[in-house]
Amino acid sequence: MVEDVGRRVRTGLHTVGLDALAVVAGIVVYFGVRGMTAGSPDVARDHALDILALEKTLGLDIEKGVQAAFVDIEALATVANWIYIWGHWPVIVATLTWLALHNRVVFRRLRNAMLASGGLGLCVYTTYPVAPPRLAGVGFVDTITETSNSYRVLQPPAFVNQYAAMPSLNVGWDLLVGLALIAATSTWLLRFVGRLMPMLMAAATVLTANHYLLDVLAGAAFGLAGWMIALQLEKRSAPDVPASVVLPSQRCASDQERAPRDTANRGRCASP
């Protein structure tokens, strides 16, 4: 009995370790490729101006007005900075760890969704570099750099492509974490956090001048695309049982549900 429990524990730890290694490898590759494919600053700024022009055409150019309204309110600026700094990777790591221990199915779904959406995002980062508002030279305030070095420590500019504003995977991956929490738990508080977190991150990315509104919308779309890909992978990996194949125990259970008082039927379903 003790040996069986020990074997299960070792097997579980081994599986969790392999899954964790896959996540870490994916993150390293993501940041490695993203960092090595930084585009020209001038090209990235030109693309930023194109996005701002498109937003103006669509009536979505709200970033300057929103930031101007809050940037001088120190408490709001601090909250936005902290959400952007600590509401992304620390939350992702904590969620993946919790899911690895409590819900392996949703853990793999979140892992696959992050890898899929990250791969899609890299395609855009390498072909269409975009300077974030804070580096576009059009009057935005870099609130995080002005008040804190924490984020630049977590993601040093020397190792990160700073011209990868489109899409915002800060929003896309926080959305994935929210979907994972909603899928994995029935606790109202965690489900509420899952719904609130991507909205807070979306607001923080704009308020801190790290992303445009179009980046936010694209990030959410990329995240949802990754989630759909993960669901399809999950569906394909599930064992298929032909509808015509019904196990005797399943047939008997179904018969008893339809006719619970049929004593003759019960006799046929009894174990030999």
Structural summary, described in words:
The chain is built from 13 helices and no strands. It has helices at 2-36, 41-58, 63-70, 74-86, 89-102, 104-127, 143-147, 150-154, 169-184, 188-207, 213-237, 248-258, 263-269. Helix 5 runs antiparallel to helix 6, helix 6 (104-127) crosses helix 11 and helix 9 (169-184) runs antiparallel to helix 10 (188-207). 32% of the residues are buried. Mean pLDDT is 80; it is low at 241-272.
Tally of DSSP β-strands: 0
Number of helices: 13
Would you identify the regions where 5 or more consecutive residues have pLDDT less than 50?
241-272
Distance between the termini: 29 Å
Shape: globular
Order of helices and strands: HHHHHHHHHHHHH
| Biggest sheet overview | none
The total tally of domains equals 1
Overall average residue pLDDT: 80
Task: Write a short abstract of this structure.
The chain has 272 residues and is an all-alpha fold. The chain contains 13 helices and no strands. It has one domain (2-237).
Task: Tell me the layout of helices and strands.
Layout: H1 2-36, H2 41-58, H3 63-70, H4 74-86, H5 89-102, H6 104-127, H7 143-147, H8 150-154, H9 169-184, H10 188-207, H11 213-237, H12 248-258, H13 263-269
Helix pairs in contact: 1-6, 4-10, 5-6, 5-9, 6-9, 6-11, 9-10, 9-11, 12-13
